[in-house]
Amino acid sequence: MKRDLTDTTASKINKALVEARRAIGTPAVGVVLTLVIVTDEENAYDALKAASEASREHPSRTLVVIKRVSRSPRDRTTSRLDAEVRVGAEAGTGETVVLRLYGEVVDHAQSVVLPLLLPDAPVVVWWPVDAPLDPASDPLGALAQRRVTDSSMAEEPVRDLGARARAYAPGDTDLSWTRITPWRSMLAAALDQVTCEVKGVEVEGEEFNPSCELLAMWLADRLDVPVKRTTSPGPGLTAVRMDTSGGPISLDRADGSLATLSIEGQPDRAVALKRRETSELIAEELRRLDPDDTYASALRFGVERLVVVTAAADGEDPGQDTAGTSRAAARTAGAPGARAGAPGAKAAKKAPAKKAAAK
Fold first, then answer.
1. In contact, 114 and 150? CB cutoff 8 Å
2. What is each CA distance from 149 to 47, 237, 309, in whole angstroms?
3. Interval 219-271: pLDDT, tens
4. Which pLDDT belongs to residue 317?
5. Helix axes 157-166, 351-358, angle to 10 degrees
6. What does residue 194 show for φ and ψ, rounded to 5 degrees?
7. Measured between alpha carbons, how far is residue 140 from residues 111, 175, 288 in Å?
8. Distance (Å) of CA 239 to CA 31, 96, 224, 231, 255
9. pTM for the whole thing?
10. What angle is formed at CA 200 by the lines to CA 194 and CA 206, rounded to 5 degrees?
11. CA–CA gap between residue 209 and residue 191 (Å, rounded)
């Protein structure tokens, strides 16, 4: 069931939701959280489609906040709220409200969203595009337990990673981090199969892909070894190669679908590592509502290394890069030696990091 409301209020929207549920014969609310999507008109359809597919696993009340740009000075001073209420088959397994804000109310979106939040249910805010650099300080982000951004949609992803590291608050996460979950699981499993010492790592992927940076930061943080970041034509993350005392270990994915795991002394194995849809990423993030400490550690620890590598790439003595990395790693509290699953650090060489630092 779908119902349009023009020049409405939050109380009328709540009333329309109750009436719509009664009309389809489901007066009870069977949802587990509120998902707030903050986007523009261009990306609203794709974001709403992904949220609707994710609602099959996590029934939720989805509030889509679209801030419309008024063209004339007169329109910019006139506040208006239009809403689109969807319940039943139109909204997946939950219920959806599309909110279009005009005029001065654009700057007070939280006052519109707050009365529509489910009582005693967690709130997740997702910015598919144009996410704030400090999500926790955003008025809408302050309402949520979890704040989901996507650095891959930013104009300068590496710069955004650095800013988010400085402004990180418990509950922040990034879909660029979610994309590398299968890679992290596979690499950890590979190191569990052998007894060796990791000496160095190379992460290869296409340029301006923050997932490659985050994976390099995580490996450096956990293994306490030098990590080299190299570029490739893609798609996305294409390979991770580890130099170990027991021989090389590599995970190569050239086509974005099927990867090959190679371990010295063992036959090569084919591994399914397809690039996942946005709906799968959102569903994964909604499975946990507690702070992601591993993401926080990798984000904070790795951004500094990107700066060090950039300085060396601009013409400084490469030896200074290695020394600076070692000193910073030594300053990290509780960093054990180089072994699988141990905290530590170093980041990687990359053109996007160079551009971001130059700015």
1. no
2. 12, 19, 26
3. 988 988 888 888 888 788 999 999 988 889 999 998 888 899 999 888 999 99
4. 40
5. 60
6. -130, 155
7. 9, 18, 20
8. 40, 40, 19, 10, 11
9. 0.80
10. 105
11. 25
